[in-house]
Amino acid sequence: MKRLKGEASEILTALQREHTQVQNDTLDVEVQVETIIKEVAQYGDQALRRYSSQFDHVELTELEVSKDTIEQGYIRVEKEVIDSLKKAKENIISYHEKQKQSNFMDSEKSGVIRGQLVLPLERVGVYVPGGTAAYPSSVLMNVLPAKIAGVKEIIMVTPPTSSGIPDVILAAAKIAGVDRVFQVGGAQAVAALAYGTESISKVDKIVGPGNIYVATAKKQVFGLVGIDMIAGPSEIGILADETANPVYIAADLLSQAEHDVLARAILVTTSERLADQVEKEVYKQLQTLPRRKIAEQSIENKGQIIIVPTIEAMFTVMNEIAPEHLEVQLPDPMSYLHEIKNAGSIFLGAYACEPVGDYFSGTNHVLPTSGTAKFYSPLGVYDFVKYSQVTYYTKEALADAKDAVAILARKEGLEAHARAVDYRFE
Predict the structure, then answer these.
(1) Which whole-number Å values give the CA distances from 207 to 51, 127, 156, 269, 346, in the listed order?
(2) Which of 43, 61, 191, 361 has its CA 20 to 30 A from that of 367?
(3) Binding residue ranges for Zn(2+)
(4) What pLDDT was estimated at residue 18?
(5) pLDDT at 314
(6) Which pairing describes strands 112-120 and 123-127: parallel, antiparallel, or unpaired?
(7) Which of the residues in the chain have pLDDT under 50?
């Protein structure tokens, strides 16, 4: 693991230097994705089949997964897995129900009513990653907040395989209440959701994590449709002092490192002794990990241990990193909540390990990455609604306001705006 040591200001300078390094392959990806989107927009299902053959090595006759196939997949999944998915569903619903917002109307002034309507989106597309692993938890995390918000139709896309969509993904789709499932992945799936094809209906918003091609495609179609966020590789930041357990910390760092070779696992501490213990433990635990090859590459290239002199400096550095997942493994962790300014999901104490949030606690695991927690939020019910403002004025109420409206309109050089008010009183 890379190691940095110094004052907070020195660490921040080093981190900023890393952050601004340009990756040479980004432009190539942008160009490739742009071509894919144009092809799907023009040729629809034909392009989807061609790209599935080219990228996934699967020859598709039917893009949509039938209800019967979904049901059979559900039946084949082990009972304990189904039970765990249903328990997770209960927790996700109980947490996200609290995010619902209500319409409001006020009438503080005579003859004036102002209000806000909270309206669900009509149709949403959910991208569920495939590739190196199956992620049924991502199905629940993306779909259930949309259901709570009242979205009328939820379309799921996920990469095809030669053996079909994994049964556990189909089971999660059934449990979550997905309306339609399509075996299409990559940038081409995002393009299909954004533009619509013969088989796939155009959606209002696309949510869900994916690789750099999926993220780039979401960025390019934004404006035609809404998106949740542009997510990068997974990351975890851990704040700990000499009282923390190095075995726990190493395990938590590896829980993110095994996602992706580009995943970031970062420990910020005041204790050099803990840093040494954690690094030793990370390499010990790596030896028996099934996904060792991925995790080891992540730890070697992206893993960091940062040593600073004070707890205050720990928070200064971590707030600049703005991690997707933040663990606070300090005594009385709740007392430090006010020190946290930027983080996607916060885990307090030695036993609130990050995987609890990934699968079970009910908090969402679709989170801002790569420092975007400074301005993005976790996926929630609020991502699946839009707000419309309401205004009502009587003639008497407008009479009280007309002079001020006309003055401001004319100050901006918009005479027609002013006359729209004046004509009502001639």
Answers:
(1) 21, 6, 10, 35, 22
(2) 191
(3) 256, 259, 358, 417
(4) 74
(5) 97
(6) unpaired
(7) 22
Rg (CA), the chain: 25
**Catalytic residue status for 57:** no
Q: Give residue 22's pLDDT.
A: 44
Q: Which residues pair with 237 in a beta bridge?
A: 266, 326
Query: Which residues are known binding-site members for substrate?
Result: 234, 256, 259, 325, 358, 412, 417
- Structural contact between residues 331 and 31, judged by C-beta atoms closer than 8 angstroms: no
CB atoms within 10 A of CB 295: 26
The pTM of the full predicted model, rounded to 2 decimals, is 0.92
**pLDDT of amino acid 19:** 66
pLDDT for position 130: 85
Which candidate, 22, 23, 50, places its Cα nearest to that of 35?
50
Cα–Cα distance for residue pair 60/386, rounded to 1 Å? 36
Structure tokens at 273: 């002794």
Is 356 exposed, middle or buried (CB count within 10 Å of its CB: 0-12, 13-18, 19+)? middle
How many other C-beta atoms are found inside a 10 Å radius of the C-beta of residue 159?
Answer: 23
Looking at residue 22, what DSSP letter applies?
P
Catalytic residue among 39, 279, 296, 324: 324
Summarize the annotated binding site for NAD(+) as residue ranges: 127, 188, 211
Output the pLDDT for position 134: 82
Strands laid side by side in the 153-157 sheet: 64-65, 180-182, 153-157, 123-127, 205-207, 226-227
What residues form the annotated binding site?
A: 127, 188, 211, 234, 256, 259, 325, 358, 412, 417
- Cβ-contact 205, 121 below 8 angstroms: yes
All structural domains of the chain: 2-23+233-374 (3.40.50.1980), 44-100+118-227 (3.40.50.1980), 394-425 (no CATH)
- Among this protein's residues, is 325 annotated catalytic? yes
Q: What is the residue whose two structure tokens read 């960025």? A: 219
Task: Write out the DSSP string of 124-191.
Answer: EEEE---TTS--HHHHHHHHHHHHHHT-SEEEEE----TT-S-HHHHHHHHHHT-SEEE---HHHHHH
The answer to whether the beta carbons of residues 101 and 385 sit under 8 Å apart is: yes
CB 254 within 8 A of CB 263: no
- Using a 10 angstrom Cβ sphere, with 0-12 exposed, 13-18 middle and 19 or more buried, the burial of residue 395 is exposed
Tell me the C-alpha distance between 40 and 48, whole Å. 7
Q: Which of 258, 279, 281, 325 is catalytic?
A: 325
